[in-house]
Design goal:
Structural class: alpha/beta
Number of strands: 13
Order of helices and strands: EHEEHHHEHEHEHEHEHEEHEHEHEHHH
CATH class of the largest domain: Alpha Beta
Strand content: 5-15%
Number of domains: 2
CATH architecture of the largest domain: 3-Layer(aba) Sandwich
CATH topology of the largest domain: Rossmann fold
CATH superfamily of the largest domain: Glycogen Phosphorylase B
Number of helices: 15
């Protein structure tokens, strides 16, 4: 490979689902292919020399240093306690007057001095910087112009935060296209204390105008939003997120149920839990869908993954509630055991659980939003339902469950073929090919932006 050999990935953390899991898996795949790939994060949880935690310089506000120490302690224990995450944020704000002032005024919190030195944090300087989620209270977006002057910078969009004045999903709001301001929902993550979204939007637009960026998204839907935004890139490219198709692959439904000690004859619907406060998933529609399905088919069984306790409205139903499954092989068995996987969402750039389920030959019913409309081929690998409509979602599930056995087997097989297209290998190879093209172009052009 004549392209870059040393790749530095940048992300909020090295553990979790969504963007966190995708960045870590992509980094690991590139290391397996012989690249010197490292993952730089705001919060490190894994014991791995492939992961480096971004330093947080001591507070210049001397009374704030004990608060910063306590904030760091909470940050290291965020996975063990749900209270530690908001507490670490509060303590670190109090320890850094500039960040506290930014938060108080409703500005994006960019006061993270450690961001300026990220290219010096590896033994050898990287040939290319691949940025994933840049929100999450760890990175100063204002260093992008200088970073992109020194090395090519790829931005992977996992949500819409880079395109807006504060929110990571804008739903039906179109104000992000012409400057934000008068925000209809300041509580969407990352929340904004007061409406300074117009200034935040202008700050981001100015940063991008002085940067040389290569932008990618996992769906054409999100890529189109980027192309219509103030994020003017050198190049845009759609590269879907990948899954490990050595783990998520077809298998015997009967064998999976035997191994998991699930009933062999009953039809089974699988879904994943989401917080009732989630602005992007739609657990309320999911609960109502389950109730409607139970009404239409009393013999139907349900399995929910990621549920600490069964919601009051679902108690008494034949529902198996499971905690978060950290072993992907066990998760894959549950996908194989299910007749249908259901995913409800208000906004979704890319549904990783949808591709995992399809790769395991389990057809999917999902809300017709965002990137989900590209992942599912309606009538072939599953069905799309009206967002926020539990009756339509339940009817779609029943339509799949009532299909003749041969037709359902054909759909499951088509789902497996569709899911296999989203392999980690396909994603990794597409990025490495693009890296090579970017580096060749950079060397030939010899044109890199200045700070002026």
């Amino acid at each position: 490979m004549s392209g870059p050999r040393r790749i530095l990935h940048l992300n909020t953390s090295d553990s979790g689902g969504g963007a966190e899991g995708s960045a870590w898996e992509l980094c690991c795949y590139m290391r397996q292919q012989g690249l010197e790939a490292k993952l730089l994060v705001g919060r490190k949880y894994r014991v791995s020399d492939a992961v480096i935690e971004l330093p947080r310089p001591p507070s210049y506000f001397i009374p704030g240093r004990p608060l910063q120490y306590l904030g760091g302690f909470c940050r290291r224990h965020e996975q063990a306690s749900a209270l530690c995450r908001p507490l670490s944020r509060i303590l670190e704000r109090l320890a850094h007057p500039r960040r506290l002032w930014q938060w108080w005024r409703g500005l994006e919190e960019f006061d993270y001095p450690g961001s300026a030195g990220i290219l010096e944090m590896t033994q050898s300087p990287p040939d290319l910087l691949h940025c994933h989620n840049l929100h999450g209270y760890y990175f100063d977006l204002r260093v992008l112009p200088e970073l992109s002057r020194r090395v090519p910078v790829v931005l992977s969009l996992h949500d819409a935060w880079l395109l807006s004045g504060h929110c990571s999903h804008f739903f039906d709001c179109q104000r992000w296209q012409n400057g934000c301001g008068k925000c209809p929902n300041l509580k969407i993550y990352p929340p904004c204390r007061r409406d300074n979204t117009a200034q935040n939007w202008r700050t981001k637009a100015d940063i991008y105008a002085r940067s040389r960026l290569y932008v990618t998204a996992p769906s054409q839907w999100l890529l189109k939003q980027a192309q219509n935004s103030m994020l003017k890139a050198k190049e845009y490219r759609m590269i879907p997120n990948g899954i490990d198709c050595q783990v998520f692959k077809p298998g015997s439904r009967a064998e999976a149920r035997k191994e998991l000690k699930l009933p062999l004859q009953s039809a089974m619907v699988l879904f994943c839990a989401a917080s009732p406060k989630s602005a992007f998933k739609d657990p309320q529609t999911m609960s109502k869908t389950v109730l409607e399905l139970a009404r239409q088919n009393p013999g139907l069984r349900f399995v929910c993954i990621g549920l600490s306790r069964v919601p009051e409205e679902l108690r008494g139903l034949p529902l198996l509630a499971l905690p978060y499954l950290s072993d992907p092989k066990v998760l894959a068995q549950y996908y194989r055991a299910a007749d249908v996987f259901v995913h409800t969402a208000k906004a979704e750039t890319f549904g990783k659980t949808v591709t995992e389920s399809m790769a395991c030959a389990s057809a999917v019913v999902a809300s017709a939003v965002g990137g989900l409309t590209e992942q599912i081929l309606p009538g072939k690998t599953g069905l799309l339902a009206k967002p926020g409509d539990p009756e339509d979602t339940a009817n779609a599930v029943m339509q799949l469950l009532n299909m003749p056995a041969e037709a359902k087997a054909d759909m499951d097989a088509a789902a497996a073929r569709q899911g296999a297209k989203y392999s980690l290998q396909n994603q990794g190879d597409a990025f490495m090919q693009w890296y090579e093209e970017i580096l060749v172009e950079t060397r030939q052009s010899k044109i890199l932006p200045s700070e002026s």
